[in-house]
Specification:
With 253 residues, the protein is of the alpha/beta class. It has a single domain (7-246), classed as NAD(P)-binding Rossmann-like Domain (Rossmann fold), CATH 3.40.50. Helix content is 50%, strand content 15%. It contains nine helices and seven strands. The chain has helices at 16-27, 39-51, 66-80, 103-131, 143-146, 152-172, 190-198, 200-211, 221-232, and strands at 7-11, 31-36, 56-60, 85-88, 134-139, 177-184, 243-246. A seven-stranded parallel beta sheet has the order 3-2-1-4-5-6-7, sandwiched between helices. α1 (16-27) packs across α9 (221-232), α3 packs parallel to α4 (103-131) and α4 packs parallel to α6. Bound molecules: nicotinamide-adenine-dinucleotide.
């Protein structure tokens, strides 16, 4: 087990990619705090982790609220006494042509995909700095590397995650903290299905993207977990500021 004795926070850990990451970290021996706006989902994943004989702590938190995040981090420290790994996974999307997009949608996407990640990093970093080490793994998207049709604002928010992560990685490297990014491509989750269902044009675009995946299939949440475990583990001690696509070859950059 590569993460024995560690404690990890996974944001948006209640379903989809976040759930798979939470369970993969637990399988590698980590205690996990599952931060999700849907408390019931978080509890369900905590029970699944406990079935693997790991301690798990479900926390109901709206990551776009600073007061919620600070309280959730404090609760995690009260419960586990330490934080070693922060996985910023929660994210959202709304597809459509940019020129027809509304500012309310921009605000929602930026608030969760970028700003909430800043909030969790700022809340957790003092503990990592005080302990002299830690791991941050941010989940962006291939859209943030290459741009994606119908997802201009989403792509921008994920590009911001990538650039921020590189800059932060430089800032904290000498304090033993690494910051890396995992970029999923198309992964079969409730979010992807909601995008398909949102409009026939969106479904068409996503079908075309799926057909362009060199490996010939849409990914599963479990496909993303190996990269996150790697960045969280000792195997990645000398790796920071990196961006790794997990997308069946969709983006090669
Ligand atoms: N599914 C894909 O194809 C895909 C592709 C590339 C990147 N990603 C990224 O992967 C991450 C996870 O995506 P997913 O498909 O598993 O999403 P999902 O919508 O299936 O799950 C997201 C989870 O985040 C939680 N959440 C939403 N808003 C929250 C908030 N304000 N506070 C706390 N929790 C909140 C939800 O309750 C849910 O459990 C996102 O950052 C997404 O952008 C997904």
């Amino acid at each position: 087990m590569r993460l024995e004795g560690r404690t990890a926070i996974v944001t948006g850990g209640g379903q989809g990619i976040g759930r798979a990451i939470s369970l993969a970290l637990a399988e590698e021996g980590s205690r996990i705090a599952i931060f999700d706006i849907d408390g019931e989902r978080a509890k369900k994943v905590a029970r699944e982790a406990e079935a693997l004989k790991r301690e798990a702590f479900p926390v109901e938190v709206d990551l776009t609220r600073k007061d919620h995040v600070l309280h959730a981090v404090k609760q995690t420290l009260d419960r586990f006494g330490r934080i070693d790994v922060l996985v910023n996974n929660a994210g959202t999307d709304k597809m459509g042509v940019f020129v027809e997009s509304d500012e309310e949608a921009w605000d929602k996407i930026i608030a969760l995909n970028f700003r909430a990640m800043l909030t969790t990093c700022k809340a957790v970093l003092p503990h990592l700095l005080a302990r002299g080490g830690g791991r941050i793994v941010n989940i962006a998207s291939d859209a943030g590397r290459a741009g994606s049709s119908g997802e201009a604002v989403y792509s921008g928010s994920k590009g911001a995650v990538i650039a921020f992560s590189k800059a932060l990685a430089r800032e904290v490297a000498r304090q033993g903290i690494t910051v890396n990014v995992v970029c999923p491509g198309l992964i079969e989750t409730a979010l992807l299905q909601a995008l398909r269902d949102s409009a026939p044009t969106n479904a068409k675009i996503l079908d075309a993207v799926a057909r362009a995946i060199p490996m010939g299939r849409v990914g599963r949440p479990e496909d993303v977990t190996g990269a996150v475990v790697f960045f969280a583990s000792r195997d990645a001690d000398y790796v920071t500021g990196q961006t790794l696509s997990v997308s069946g070859g969709l983006t090669m950059a």
